[in-house]
Specification:
By secondary structure, this protein is an alpha+beta fold. The protein contains 19 helices and 23 strands. Bound molecules: iron/sulfur cluster (SF4). Iron/sulfur cluster (SF4) is lined by residues 190, 249-251, 395, 397, 399, 446-449.
Length: 469
């Protein structure tokens, strides 16, 4: 596995706006998606409702690339718009799988964008195909759109209320008809979704950083199991019949979300800083300097330094222009991929005992090369400290580590991992301390990849979905 792929990927970010006055809704969604770019870099799409029509544009690549060359201005003015950024692991059919899913059904024109992952997609699709449904893609979002439509009797809210109990897995949805914007969060609230207002417009986004990007004030998070309908009557809230039991993905705080977001009452920045502090308190080691793997571990590394009294120093410089779709055509170039992406700051490291902090370790290949790079730059000792527990189990709820064989920690101890990556020592934050670092969150957590206990029984998981795609 090459270095660039040794990163965890979230599968999506969603954004929606309902406007009574401002007609440039596509531009609002564009800036919202721009702020959510970290949640998906492989495709982007915006759909706009105007009069009784929906017009959309989707493409492969980053938001500014997809909507360059006048594509954004080609979208019409309208009252409602939704957008989506996606990460996928797939090849040929990627553009087909880009969102929003747009179609005409019993509720007229409709568009849907989804963040998360269902674990019963194939079963639902098979059932729908038996009932004469046809599908263009293999994505669960299309299955959701078709099921909502088929159960709607021409009433979108009825369709959503009836379909949601059939969905198993993680879903934060924005759905649009020509007169309504609907936001839905699954009964466990696994993926984040929040509501804001800017002037008289109402906006919905995966993270609060996207509300800030469009000048919106945060109103509240969508609750687990809540269906929020926004139309000319204002905002109405409906709860699913299934009793919500919150199990928010704790990895949002560890890695996925932007540090300037606040999710379910907890600042991502504050949670990462607290994780660094707890790491220093419980997994300390003597050293000369503390450094973070840029960028996501820097907050924790500074907090570790402050708590331990060991000075913080930059050990790695990151090339910010290497995208996640960076391709290395042959083995030699793959070997060099990390060197292109980051480089050691020799002057800060030489002759030093170094603590290097990272947010998580999945496959271990990148950390092994980072340790080697730091040693080659003259570090006397390299101690790795990780702001989350050992990932021992796959995730099927929207993150792309889906097999045990991908996980360096699946069957290894800290000592064995240290040996494998060539570090003097490796220590991980405990599950208890990770939860403690997010104590401001007003929901309970999914900790499945650390503990093997998921919100849904793993026996029912369809594990071959990405292969299908
Ligand atoms: S298994 Fe891990 S990554 Fe997946 S939803 Fe649960 S906490 Fe998040």
């Amino acid at each position: 596995m090459d270095e660039i792929q040794d990163e965890i990927h979230e599968e999506c970010g969603v954004f929606g706006v309902y406007s009574s006055e401002n007609r440039t809704v596509a531009h609002t969604v564009y800036y919202g998606l721009f702020a959510l770019q970290h949640r998906g870099q492989e495709s982007a799409g915006i759909a706009v409702a105007y009069a009784d029509k929906i017009m959309y544009y989707k493409g492969m690549g980053l938001v500014p690339d997809v909507f360059s060359g006048g594509k954004l201005d080609d979208l019409p003015e309208g009252d409602i718009a939704i957008g989506h950024v996606r990460y996928s692991t797939t090849g040929a059919s990627q553009l087909l799988n880009a969102q929003p899913v747009v179609f005409t059904g019993k509720c007229g024109k409709m568009a849907l964008a989804h963040n998360g992952n269902l674990v019963n997609t194939a079963r639902l699709r098979e059932e729908l195909i038996k009932n004469n449904a046809v599908f263009q893609t293999s994505i669960d979002s299309e299955v959701m759109a078709v099921l909502i439509n088929s159960l709607s009797d021409g009433d979108i809210l009825k369709g959503v209320m009836r379909a949601c109990p059939r969905f198993e897995g993680a879903y934060a949805l924005v759905i649009m008809t020509t007169d309504k914007l609907i936001a839905v969060r699954d009964p466990y609230g696994i993926r984040p979704l929040c509501i804001g207002t800017v002037d008289d417009d109402i906006v919905v986004a995966s993270e609060s950083c996207a509300l800030d990007a469009v000048g919106a004030n945060f109103v509240r998070d969508v609750k687990p199991g809540e269906i929020v309908v926004i139309d000319s009557e204002g905002i109405t809230s409906h709860m699913m019949e299934r009793i919500p039991q919150s199990r928010m993905c704790i990895f949002e705080y560890v890695y996925f979300a932007r540090p300037d977001s606040v999710i379910d009452g907890c600042s991502v920045y504050a949670a990462r800083a607290e994780a660094g502090r707890l790491l220093a308190e419980h997994c300390g080691v003597e050293a000369d300097i503390v450094a973070g793997v840029p960028d996501s571990a820097n907050v924790a590394a500074r907090a570790y330094a402050e708590a331990s009294g060991i000075p913080f120093a930059e050990a790695l410089a990151k090339n910010r222009y290497v995208g996640r779709t960076f391709i290395q055509p042959d083995q030699r170039q793959r070997e060099n991929a990390l060197a292109v992406k980051m480089n050691a700051l020799r002057a800060n490291i030489r002759g030093k005992r170094l603590i290097i902090i990272d947010d998580s370790i999945v496959r271990g290949t990148t950390m092994r090369k980072i340790v080697r790079m730091l040693r080659e730059a003259g570090a006397k000792e390299v101690h790795v400290r990780v702001c989350s527990p050992i990932i021992k189990h796959p995730c099927h709820l929207g993150i792309d580590f889906q097999t045990y064989s991908q996980l360096v920690g699946a069957n290894r101890t800290e000592e064995q991992i240290a040996k494998l990556i060539g570090a003097d020592s490796v220590r991980y934050l405990s599950v208890e301390h990770l939860v403690q670092s997010c104590k401001a969150c007003n929901l309970n957590f999914c900790l499945g990849c650390f503990t093997g206990e998921y919100p849904y029984p793993p026996e029912g998981f369809e594990t071959d979905k990405l292969r299908l795609e």
